[in-house]
């Protein structure tokens, strides 16, 4: 396990909790945020894409915003967050539906056509990957824009997918807290 994964694991042990598929990180990642930790996680994930052409980082409002900003900062590119409500100022847009199992609700995600253009290489990022509903919605938005998905990165991957760059998997978390 790399040093960043070890740091995150220690922080979960100290200030979080794991109960089955539920990982409580709201004291340092997605409610109250430790900016130094987010910066280190962002550097770790950005480094994995340093040799790729990335034009924009894209996430969904709201828990992914902090890690998206950190990754985009380290890659030196802008980041976009898909909005859960379309403002009146957003004329032309791309949209796709996403279901949140945590919040038990369906949401439409919106991205203005002004900020995502055909041909751009997009990196999807989020705090967690669980069943992929948000990722599927982002894939649809990227496709609508005529852009390309260059990859995906999350802080914690709770799924069996191994094609997503991640700092920790649920299996690693479970093994390290039970062992």
Topology record:
Blueprint lengths: L2 H13 L1 E3 L2 E3 L10 H13 L8 E5 L4 H11 L3 E4 L10 E8 L4 E8 L8 E9 L3 H13 L2 E10 L7 E5 H9 L1
Parallel strand pairs: 3-4, 3-7, 7-8, 8-9
Antiparallel strand pairs: 1-2, 5-6
Characterise this structure.
Helix 2 crosses helix 3. The chain has helices at residues 3-15, 35-47, 65-75, 133-145, 170-178, and strands spanning 17-19, 22-24, 56-60, 79-82, 93-100, 105-112, 121-129, 148-157, 165-169. The strands form 3 sheets. Strands 4-3-7-8-9 form a 5-stranded parallel beta sheet, with helices on both faces. A two-stranded antiparallel ribbon has the order 1-2. The protein has a single domain, classed as Rossmann fold (3-Layer(aba) Sandwich), CATH 3.40.50.2020. The chain is an alpha/beta fold.
